[in-house]
Write a structure and sequence with these properties.
Layout (H helix, E strand, L loop, with lengths): L3 E2 L4 E2 L5 H4 L9 H8 L7 H4 L14 H16 L4 E2 L5 E8 L2 E11 H5 L3 E2 L6 H14 L1 E2 L3 E5 L3 H11 L5 E4 L6 E7 L2 H12 L4 E5 L1 H17 L11 E8 L5 E2 L1 E5 L7 H8 L3 E7 L10 E6 L2 E7 L14 H11 L13 E5 L3 H10 L5 E4 L5 H10 L9 E2 L10 E2 L2
Parallel strand pairs: 6-11, 8-12
Antiparallel strand pairs: 1-5, 2-3, 4-5, 4-10, 5-12, 7-21, 8-11, 9-10, 13-20, 14-18, 14-19, 15-17, 16-17, 16-19
């Protein structure tokens, strides 16, 4: 059963939230962060991308950069740009994209739940990326940015959230970078707090939707602090890390597509002929063609779009991994035909996700940068949960959640 708790959030005053809030650290590079922060000293980028305070070209892994993160974090508190709530709260965070709103509960997730598998993952993590985030958590003694969770739909929680959603929010703004709406409420009623805690206690599992490295880092630092404390009791704040948990049915997963640098020495005709072994191929012309259902793919090659439909027998409906389109395309095209090797490290492939759309695939191929592009039908939240429940791991670059969480609305201190 899932254990959660409210916490004393560290938050911007209402009139400063739009100056403080930012995109997550891992969706933009240092130069983009430098440009977005501009001359705004209150931008959270000074904490989560602190290399922007050094000369261009400074590595984000330079030890001085982590020290700068801690210095900036303290400065934000000293200046009153982040102020800690006096009492423990849960919070509601709502995001609106294309007229659709999803409501998340900001919670303290239990470190032991991550370590014992109650909090389930569906992606592999890389140790170097874990260590980077662990250093950031250690030096700040805080979770500056939240992890993105999903939980099974719950009528009691939905009713509670909708009741708050009908009231005036603490924060209400539209992020200029993406045009999405963001609202935030503070839950201070003791009965509502108790209800949330109890409803999560009934859930056998929570699911990491996005932020596997942040989850791993937060949990490992929490476990590390427990070992280092000779008087460890188990109720210390470091036993919890910050997450925003959404009802699974509300989440939007967009397609995560592939662009290919070469055809492994094949001509276009030879490549298409090889694909026909396992797919029904149809030329769809020069207009952008988007896959309409599971097991259908779009290939952009030589100015034409082709639909590829996986033939019977190329996947196993009883295998939660083998039935995934990302697995089908990886096995039968990227590995068998193109022999790309490890997708995480291959220089012959790149990935295009989120809102960029199929027009971005066409642009990169037409420019001559890439030889071909492959578009996939999006993975479903049910598929992700089935895989997490089975204990298996999804192929790389399989999911792209949108909208991304904004950072800086609330921070969780570990003491």
């Amino acid at each position: 059963m899932a254990t959660i708790k409210p916490f004393r959030g560290l938050r911007p005053p209402r009139d400063l939230v739009e100056q403080v809030e930012s995109r997550p650290y891992d969706v933009l590079d240092s130069e983009e962060a430098r440009a977005e922060a501009g001359d705004n000293e209150k931008s959270l980028y000074h904490i989560i991308k602190p290399e922007i305070n050094f000369p261009e070209g400074t590595s984000e892994y330079d030890p001085r950069v982590y020290e700068e993160a801690a210095r900036q974090f303290q400065k934000f508190q000293d200046e009153g740009w982040l102020v800690q709530d006096k009492d423990e709260h849960y919070y509601i965070y709502a995001q609106t994209m294309s007229g659709k709103t999803q409501y998340g509960l900001v919670i303290g997730a239990y470190v032991d739940d991550y370590l014992n598998g109650v909090i389930k993952k569906h992606e592999l993590t890389r140790r170097d990326k874990e260590e980077d985030r662990m250093k950031h958590v250690r030096v700040n003694d805080a979770n500056i940015e939240p992890v993105f969770f999903a939980y099974p739909d719950n009528a009691v929680l939905n009713e509670l959230i909708m009741r708050y959603a009908a009231t005036e929010p603490e924060y209400d703004f539209i992020a200029p970078i993406d045009g999405f709406g963001h609202k935030f409420w503070v839950i201070s009623d003791d009965a509502d707090i108790a209800t949330i805690t109890e409803e999560f206690r009934k859930m056998p599992s929570l699911y990491i939707a996005d932020g596997h490295h942040r989850s791993a880092a937060a949990a490992l630092v929490g476990a590390e602090k427990a070992k280092q404390n000779p008087n460890h009791r188990g109720d210390e704040e470091y036993n919890y890390f910050m997450a925003v948990a959404f009802q699974a049915s509300q989440l939007t997963i967009l397609d995560y597509n592939r662009v290919l640098k070469d055809l492994n020495g094949l001509t276009s005709e030879q490549f298409l002929e090889a694909i026909r072994k396992n797919f029904t191929v149809e030329d769809r012309g020069t207009e952008i063609y988007k896959p309409a259902h599971l097991h259908e793919f779009s290939l952009y090659l030589d100015g034409h779009w082709f639909s590829l439909v996986a033939k019977d027998g190329t996947f196993d409906n009883n295998d939660p991994i083998g039935v995934l389109d990302v697995d089908i395309s990886s096995r039968l095209i990227l590995e068998d035909i193109l022999q790309l090797g490890d997708l995480r490290s291959s220089k012959r492939i790149d990935f295009v996700g989120g809102l960029r759309g199929l027009g971005e695939l066409k642009r990169r191929v037409d420019s001559g940068e890439m030889r071909a592009a492959l578009a996939l039908y999006p993975v479903s939240m049910k598929q992700i949960m089935d895989i997490a429940d089975s204990g298996k791991i999804m192929p790389p670059k399989a999911t792209w959640f949108e909208p991304k969480l904004r950072s800086g609305l609330v921070v969780h201190k570990l003491q």
